[in-house]
Design a protein that fits this description.
With 310 residues, the chain is of the alpha+beta class. The chain has helices at residues 12-15, 84-90, 96-120, 144-157, 169-176, 179-186, 188-192, 200-206, and strands at 18-21, 25-30, 67-72, 74-83, 128-131, 164-168, 211-215, 218-220, 231-233, 239-243, 256-261, 271-277, 282-295, 301-305. The longest helix is centred in the middle third of the chain and has 25 residues, at 96-120.
Length: 310
């Protein structure tokens, strides 16, 4: 069997953590920087005495506003029939139902991964984006540290210090070969004698991040029935994403959530089921998901275009 282990290449759930909901649609209050005065100094100035208690014993009063946002989950799913004859014919080699269920699950996981990448790697969905100083494929002169630090500064200034980085395997390979990044991490002397092994842990530590996620998944960009196999990276080869990917309650912030209608799809992102199709002498295996990807805070992500300088 080919393409074994591809289920270990998905990163979508780290970008949009799972949030179980007891309802399929709803609304929730949302504080934003402007109306919520989340970055405002009290009284409009850093040192104007607004927070000092008045001579009369009273305190000045501040106020803020919130907005309402909403969500609506939708159902996704696939079915595949395992014919009785095929199952018996293959039983000496493999469990037909188990293998089929796993492959159907992989198709659903891939569909979800593509959706996650499309939501994050879109400049219309994030509050800020930037271009690199030198394209990253030019590994001898690209300045990955400067590009990343500039993005971190941009996010931090608006109160959204990033915790994670997401990039495709190809961009990671450009990044780890960058001479300036090697020097930034290990020093000039070390680089001159051959450098050290670049790891995601080392990069994360150098930039004050929790994780560097290498998005390795690819997909065949072809219609059904077309024999030519053309593979495309799910997470593209243009953007490196920095983000704060919060979990749990929406008040915890973060770029987004995968909201699951838990009453309909209990147990996580995907629900596996089966039923008998006696008229066709087979068992139908179904994998489904009732979900929506919800962007909670567009300010909690920044995209660096590493293939263009302007």
């Amino acid at each position: 069997m080919e393409a074994v282990g591809q289920e270990n290449q998905y990163v979508g759930q780290y970008v949009f953590p799972i949030y179980p909901s007891m309802v399929e649609n709803g609304r929730y209050p949302k504080f934003k920087k402007d109306g919520g005065r989340l970055l405002d100094a009290a009284g409009g100035s850093q040192a104007n005495g607004f927070t000092k208690r008045n001579d009369t014993g009273t305190y000045n009063e501040t106020e803020r506003k919130f907005e309402w946002d909403s969500f609506q989950t939708e159902e996704y799913g696939l079915e595949e029939r395992v014919d009785d004859t095929v199952a018996r014919r293959m039983e000496n080699y493999f469990d037909a139902e188990m293998i089929t269920g796993k492959m159907v699950m992989n198709e659903l996981m891939l569909d979800y991964e593509i959706e996650c990448a499309a939501q994050l790697l879109n400049t219309s969905n994030v509050e800020s984006n930037s271009f690199c100083s030198t394209v990253w494929s030019t590994v001898a002169s690209s300045d990955c540290p400067a590009d990343i630090n500039a993005a971190i500064e941009t996010m931090t200034l608006r109160g959204e210090a990033p915790t994670d980085m997401v990039l495709s395997l190809k961009l990671w390979n450009f990044m780890r070969r960058s001479t300036k990044l090697q020097t930034y991490l290990f020093g000039t002397l070390n680089t001159n004698v051959g450098g050290s092994m670049m790891t995601t842990e080392a990069v994360a530590q150098a930039f004050g991040l929790n994780n560097v996620w290498i998005a390795r998944k690819s997909y065949a960009a072809r219609k059904r029935g077309v024999s030519t196999l053309s593979l495309t990276p799910v997470w593209g080869e243009t953007y490196v994403a920095l983000g704060k990917f919060g979990e749990g309650d929406f008040m915890n912030g973060g770029f987004g959530r995968t909201i699951i209608w838990d009453a309909d799809s209990p147990g996580g992102l995907f629900t596996s089921e089966s039923y008998r199709a006696e008229a066709r002498r087979g068992n139908i295996l179904r994998v489904r998901s009732n979900r929506v990807l919800k962007r909670i805070s567009p300010a909690a992500a920044h995209l660096i275009n590493v293939n263009a300088t302007s």
